Amino acid sequence: xxxxxxxxxxxxxxxxxxxxxxxxxxxxxxxxxxxxxxxxxxxxxxxxxxxxxxxxxxxxxxxxxxxxxxxxxxxxxxxxxxxxxxxxxxxxxxxxxxxxxxxxxxxxxxxxxxxxxxxxxxxxxxxxxxxxx
Length: 133
Known about the structure:
Layout: H1 6-10, H2 15-25, H3 48-57, H4 73-86, H5 104-112
């Protein structure tokens, strides 16, 4: 048998289950509906229309390979346009400067990797949702 470290036991609860508890305790009304803005959270199935489109997409042989390393070009173009508009960037954010990653951990590592000279004694931290206690 093993026991968890005192530091692990004292760490903050993960934010996703806590947010799910808050949502379960909320009583939505037509005037004040619950707006679930979570992304990629287990236990929240995607809308049926999305499932239908995915079912159609998997039948296309063109969808069975790896995608572009920097992410889907059409999505990167939209992100570049939106980022330029939202952040009022001087000039235009070039699509070549936009990459789509599978979450914030990969984004952080992708950003830090070129900055670190290997071999290095620097350990890149994982993304944290809260500060340590």
